[in-house]
């Protein structure tokens, strides 16, 4: 029998009501201290019919917290803010994992108290970010992380996972994608170290696996997912052999019995500027990884269902459609047309373009 988007699924420790997941999306509504408020709680609760909500990327350490308005999970106040979010989502019958990240080299000095960004090697990210005055600013050469700084980052990820679960969230997704710190350690275009964390694929995976193991020790494997973006070119990230790298990493993760592997890989014809023009790696990951796999990247209801029907994935994460359709599950199930989002309100601001998209009444559709 064909699996559908609306079928339940067991994901780690949890039985989920459908396979339509909400992908992580930075929305920049948590202020300069990164503390989620009632507006953020409302936003996520509105989308609680998703089989699983994966939150926006949430910083594990002050030095890896460089996106204005993005949340953190390294202070008591941030944890208390996230407790409001988890309570609101659970009150609506939803499940929610927190995506946790360290931005690594993709931050500006002014965002991290004047310090240098951290990275495996002294290779700056490509592109720019707007500074506090809105001026596009190039990334500087990052500081090469010492062994002690690497260990500190591992501990920060583990402590963040513990805080997330203590705040009532159901688990965490480790952000190992999109050029950020873990991804930068994985790729040979950004990791040119000559110590135990660089060189071979095995060495470049060491930081990732230390983070995974430390988090498992804190909260258990059934509450842990991970996200890869094997062919992503964001901020100039690259690798000479992404298939070999990520299939090796996937085989190591099988041994950890995680809740899921989440693969971001838009199709080459999707027009997504983050795609490096490389052959997709997701099919090879599907063959290499025998756990639950989520697919994300420019998918709609039809292509998402095709991914399940062809056994390319076990569940599908939708990003942009969830911005303007808090009732995405119900719209898909009842074939209701989607509301188009306003890109001008994607990042920052208040309720406009955030919590003011309304659900459709199914009976009047």
Question: Care to describe what's here?
Answer:
With 365 residues, this protein is of the alpha/beta class. It has a single domain (9-364), classed as Aldolase class I (TIM Barrel), CATH 3.20.20. The protein has eleven helices and 15 strands. The protein has helices spanning 38-46, 76-91, 147-166, 181-186, 201-204, 206-219, 242-254, 282-288, 301-309, 320-324, 328-333; strands at 9-11, 14-16, 20-22, 52-54, 58-59, 96-101, 118-119, 128-130, 136-138, 143-144, 171-175, 224-228, 260-264, 293-296, 315-318. The strands form four sheets. The protein has an eight-stranded parallel barrel with strand order 3-4-6-11-12-13-14-15, surrounded by four helices. A two-stranded antiparallel sheet has the order 1-2. It has a two-stranded parallel sheet with strand order 7-10. Strand 1 (9-11) and strand 2 form a beta hairpin. The chain is globular and about 55 Å long. The model has no long low-confidence stretch (mean pLDDT 95).
The CATH architecture would be Alpha-Beta Barrel
**Largest sheet properties:** 8 strands, parallel, barrel
Structural class call reads alpha/beta
Low-confidence stretches: none
CATH class: Alpha Beta
Average pLDDT confidence is: 95
Number of domains: 1
Order of helices and strands: EEEHEEHEEEEEHEHHHEHEHEHEHH
Number of strands: 15
Radius of gyration: 19 Å
Topology:
Layout: E1 9-11, E2 14-16, E3 20-22, H1 38-46, E4 52-54, E5 58-59, H2 76-91, E6 96-101, E7 118-119, E8 128-130, E9 136-138, E10 143-144, H3 147-166, E11 171-175, H4 181-186, H5 201-204, H6 206-219, E12 224-228, H7 242-254, E13 260-264, H8 282-288, E14 293-296, H9 301-309, E15 315-318, H10 320-324, H11 328-333
Helix pairs in contact: 1-2, 3-6
